[in-house]
Amino acid sequence: MSTDFQQxxxxxxxxLRELRAGLTGRDLAARLGWTQSKVSKLETGRQTAxxxxxxxxxxxxxxxxxxxxLVSRLNGLESHVRSWRRQLRAGHxxxxxxxxxxxxxxxxxxxxxxxxxxxMLQTADYARSIFQLYAELHQSPRDIDDAVRARMHRQHLLxxxxxTFHIVMWEAALHARVCPPSVLAAxxxxxxxxxxxxxxRLGIVPFGAAVRVPPANGFWVxxxxxxxxxDWHAELWLDDADSIGVYRRVWDLLDQAAAYGPHAHRLIxxxxxxxxxx
Length: 278
Description:
- The protein contains 13 helices and seven strands.
- α1 (3-19) packs across α3.
- It has a seven-stranded mixed β-sheet.
- It is of the alpha/beta class.
- It has helices at 3-19, 25-32, 36-44, 51-60, 67-78, 84-87, 93-105, 124-138, 144-154, 172-175, 181-194, 241-256, 261-273; strands spanning 81-83, 108-113, 164-170, 200-205, 219-222, 226-230, 234-238.
């Protein structure tokens, strides 16, 4: 969980405690039909309130006029941490559409991915395998075909002018068996073809490369105005300069360890040869 998110949650909890003035936590819990531990967790920032929780709290403490304020605080908090459970309620296609908006708004995009091929360079079959895995993990609606079409449509941005993609991946992403071998083979062929595109600068960090930061979770930085970071439970949408600066420094350090051009091509070819697929 990000520090900024936790600080915002603690701040919301402090405001809830202010509104409870004159009531004990036990009394408020009884009024709401909650456990006392829930009241405590909300006030100390150890649990995220829902909008319904906030409305109930405002009413029970005799402060119904604070509902809009509290919900606004919650919306601001959630705009930075977008849980997969909430995002995927309507399936994967809406998530792809939201990301496309950010791609279209940007001119210089930087990506790091250590576990799989980045979405902008995926084949349709590879993307389908990835969406299937995540649909199973998050038990989300199976709108996989729509999600694949949205991801493939976004790739037209690779072939236009005025936009540059600086993509760095760990060599592990070339070997991860997140799909059938034949699908991975076609995906690696696709990567080989990407090297040389005017709009794409593709680097691979070799297994044996000295790195100055651990190759951790994947992220994108859009024009130094937004960083989107993926975790198992949520995406972090970070628009403050300090956070974006951290991810730019991480990207720069990984970029320094990456192989480009013919060396990157050899790494991809080596992974392809190990598949033993015609």
